[in-house]
Amino acid sequence: MAADHTGPLNGIRVLDLADPLAAYGARLLADLGAEVIRVEPVTGRSTVDRPPFWLAPDSPAVSPFERFVNAGKRSVTLDITAPEAEPVLADLLASADVVVESPARMLADSGWSDERVTAANPALIRVQVSPYGRDAVGDAPDDDLVLLGAGGLLHMGGYPDIGPVAVYGQQSTYMASIFAAVAAIVGLIGRQRTGAGMTADVSAQECIAQALEESVMRYALTGEVRAPQGDVAKEAGTGTYRCADGYVSMVAGRLGTAAAWTSLVKWITESDGTATELTDDGWSKFEFRQQPDAIETFRRIFERFAATRTRQELYRGAQERGIALSPVNDLAAVREDAQLNSREFFVGVEDPELGCTITYPGLPYRMSGTPLPGPRPAPRRGADNVSVYVDGLGLGVDELESLSARGVL
C-alpha cells in the first residue's frame, strides 16, 4: 500500500473491476483513504475512456472523464479471461477487502463463479453494479439517457409543453456509484460484526428511482402522475428570473416567508416608482399571488427591476434583506464562487502523465478527527504492476516479465 494513505478507510484494499457505471464509486472509496487498485485490460483503451477527448501536447488523446473517475487510484493490467491469469487474479482477490464489479457478471463471465470467488476470499465484500440488477430480465441498453428514462427521472425534467429534458452529465453513473460506495462501506461494517463477506447487488435504475422523492407515494395514494415542472413559477415571487448577466432563482412567496415577500416588495418599489401596484392589498394574499395573471405581472415587474443588476448584486441585496435568492451560476461563476473558494473546494493536481496541473472538484465534506488523503492524479495504466504483483503478491520478476510478454499482464 502507498505509504501516504490516510483517512477512515486507510488499510482497506479495493479491487476496481468497474466500467463507467461504477468506476466513480471506487474513486469515492479512494477519497476516503482506501487503496484502490484499478484492474485494466492489457491492450486497447481504458474501459472508462469516454469522449470528449483532450489532445494534450506531446501526449495521446486523453479522456477527462477517465482522469476524473480514476483519480487517487493505483493501476495494474491483467487479462482476467486468460487461463494464465487465474492464479494472479486469485491472489488479488485474496488480498482485497472489497471488489467493485460492473458489469455485475464480469467475473462470472470470465469463469469465476460465486463459489470460486468465495473460496478465494470468504471475507470479500462484493459490490456488483448493473443497469437493472444482476438478474434483470432481458438485455436492455444502459445508456445514461435510457437509464434516466427507465428510472422515471427523465419524465420529471423539462416543461409540460415540450417534453423531457435531460440533466447535464452522466447522472446515472454518479447515482449508481454513490450507492455502490455506500454498499461497500455497509458491507465492511457488517463484516466487523460477523467476519463474513457479502454481495451487494446495485441496480442503477433503482438508484434513479430513489430520486423520485414523494412522487411514488403520491401516485400510490391518489393515482396522480406528477408532470414536469421546469422552472415554472408556482406563485409570484418564486421562480427563475432573468437579470443583467443571466438568471437568478428566488423563493420569496409563501414557500419562503411573509417577511421575505414584504421585504422584496419594499426593495422593488423603493427602486422603481412604477411598481407601486405590488403594494395593493391583493398581493399580500397567497391565493392572489398564485393566479397566472399575478405571476406574469410580477415577472414583468421584477425582470424590469433586475435588468440593470447582475446576479451577484441581486444576491447580495437579497442577503441583506432576508430573501432567499441565488444566482444561477454557470461554470465560470461556480469556479469563482466565494463560498466554494473560502473552503478551498477546487484543488489543483499535478498530473505527470499530462505534464500540467488539472483542477478537480474537491471533497464535499471535511472530517475533524480523520485526515483525508490529499488530491492525487489518475495513474498511468499498469503503473503499479511491479509494486502490486512483485512487492505485494510475491510474483517473481522473471514471471512478471514472462506474463507481460505473453499479454497476460
UniProtKB/TrEMBL annotation:
This is CoA-transferase. It comes from the Bacteria. Keywords: Transferase. InterPro entries: CoA-transferase_III_domain (IPR050483), CoA-Trfase_fam_III (IPR003673), CoA-Trfase_III_dom3_sf (IPR044855), CoA-Trfase_III_dom_1_sf (IPR023606). One of its GO terms (molecular function) is CoA-transferase activity. It holds the Pfam family CoA_transf_3. The lineage of its organism: Bacteria, Bacillati, Actinomycetota, Actinomycetes, Mycobacteriales.
